[in-house]
Amino acid sequence: EKSSQQSSQPVLQNPSSNTLWYPYAQMQNLELNLEVVEANGVYLTMKDGKQLVDGISSWWCVTHGYNHPELNQAMFEQAQKFSHVMLGGLKNQVTESFAQKLVEITPDGLNHVFFSDSGSVGVEVAIKMALQYFFNQGNQNKTRIVALERAYHGDTTACMSVCDPAEGMHKMFHGITPEQFFLPAPTSGFAPSEDALEKEIAHAKTLFEEHGDTIAAVIVEPLLQGAGGFNIYSPEYLNRLKALCEEHNILLIFDEVATGFGRTGKLFAADHTNISPDIMVLAKGLTAGYVGHAATIASTQVFNAFLSDSPSKAFMHGPTFMGNPLACAIGLKAIEIFERDNYLEKIATIESILKEELLGFEHDEIVETRVLGATGAIEVKEARFHHGIQEFAAERGVWIRPFERYIYTMPPYVITPEELRKITQVMKDWFQRER
Ligand code: PLP
């Protein structure tokens, strides 16, 4: 019986759905019952007409809501001029203007923008840039990157090498991806005691003292580790980390793919700190979730290491769609709206509602509830606890997608208090349902 089961072909429960290979999914059992036919504001409309409030902004990127008339207009107007043109050897105004705008709004010292097409590639670019920064100065020893345990930086090869090596979704690739160093994730929260902070930063101090001459860069998701479990830590940790990096000639990379554009309550997580990273990566909210794009922004010090009479010091990277004019036109308009409509105020309201609704919420299954900016998460003891929650939420008009031990919301910023409370209520009702 057993051996015949093992040798038989897998039976596809839903054969019509397996032409399209879905992300992070065991395709053998995949059954998708929700089909989107339209999306407006914070609502996804399903084929059966049902509307769901999007509690996670389509993987955290749809900051301004769906089908935004002004973003549509910006995209349409640009499409009528040219929707794409290569950046190799040709310049164009909208891409130049977007780079200029990003330099204006990002922390001081970040002055040079390299575009690419997704967050993962933006991180790859940052890592490659950090390595070549040292190679260009004749230093071939600095070839290692330091990351935090619980980190998530994307799914491509260099990105996987800096994702959590023990529990992370890419652990099976460790040994194949470049070997890196990991620091324990700081876990003492947004405002740690001095003692706790000293202990956390001591790990970096020891590692840098021992291996600093082989380390090119440290990469972190500043303040909020997202896919690694919504771990919130302090601006002071980052201030201290930067000082240590400077002492040991190590670059500091902020992966703000998830935290950028308001998610932590300020425009960038870096704005909570006193420092600027040497390299910052933006994606997701960069185009308000309209099209894939990323920006890797370097300090003048980093950029200058690539200047030379010799072509060999140039940065040899150039994704086909880098600086895509549609992405840039949408991105420019998205920032204009963010500033004009005071999105930081909207995010502050979201944060206070999330705190009110989630922070005091207790249940035997809950380890901790955490809120920062427009992110609210409930950590449960066991992943199996939330099996079925997606259907439960959808029946009640809410779209959320928990993973591992985390039930969370990262809503679009245009959400109303009533719509947001609907999401948090569904999250809480799940714990209080009759079983
Ligand atoms: N870095 C962080 C912090 C992320 O959260 C993500 C995506 O969730 C990525 C990088 C990868 O971005 P992308 O999915 O656009 O490749």
Automatic annotation (TrEMBL):
Known pathway: Cofactor biosynthesis; biotin biosynthesis; 7,8-diaminononanoate from 8-amino-7-oxononanoate (SAM route): step 1/1
Gene3D superfamilies per UniProt: Aspartate Aminotransferase, domain 1, Type I PLP-dependent aspartate aminotransferase-like (Major domain)
EC number: 2.6.1.62
Residues carrying the site annotation Participates in the substrate recognition with KAPA and in a stacking interaction with the adenine ring of SAM: Y24
Reactions listed under catalytic activity: (8S)-8-amino-7-oxononanoate + S-adenosyl-L-methionine = S-adenosyl-4-methylsulfanyl-2-oxobutanoate + (7R,8S)-7,8-diammoniononanoate
Enzyme's top EC category: transferase
Family matches, as InterPro entries: Aminotrans_3 (IPR005814), Aminotrans_3_PPA_site (IPR049704), BioA (IPR005815), PyrdxlP-dep_Trfase (IPR015424), PyrdxlP-dep_Trfase_major (IPR015421), PyrdxlP-dep_Trfase_small (IPR015422)
UniProt modified residues of type N6-(pyridoxal phosphate)lysine: K284
CDD domains named in the record: OAT_like (cd00610)
Residues bound to pyridoxal 5'-phosphate: G119, S120, D255, P319, T320
Molecular function, one GO term: adenosylmethionine-8-amino-7-oxononanoate transaminase activity
Predominant cellular place of this UniProt entry's protein: cytoplasm
Subcellular location: Cytoplasm
Cofactor or coenzyme needed: pyridoxal 5'-phosphate
Highest taxon, organism lineage: Bacteria
Entry keywords, A to Z: Aminotransferase, Biotin biosynthesis, Cytoplasm, Pyridoxal phosphate, S-adenosyl-L-methionine, Transferase
List of residues binding substrate: W59, Y152, K284, G318, R401
Stretches with biased composition (Polar residues): 3-14
Function: Catalyzes the transfer of the alpha-amino group from S-adenosyl-L-methionine (SAM) to 7-keto-8-aminopelargonic acid (KAPA) to form 7,8-diaminopelargonic acid (DAPA). It is the only aminotransferase known to utilize SAM as an amino donor.
Annotated NCBIfam families: bioA, PRK05964.1
Oligomer status and interactors: Homodimer.
UniProt-recorded name of the protein: Adenosylmethionine-8-amino-7-oxononanoate aminotransferase
Organism: Litoribrevibacter euphylliae
Gene that this polypeptide is encoded by: bioA
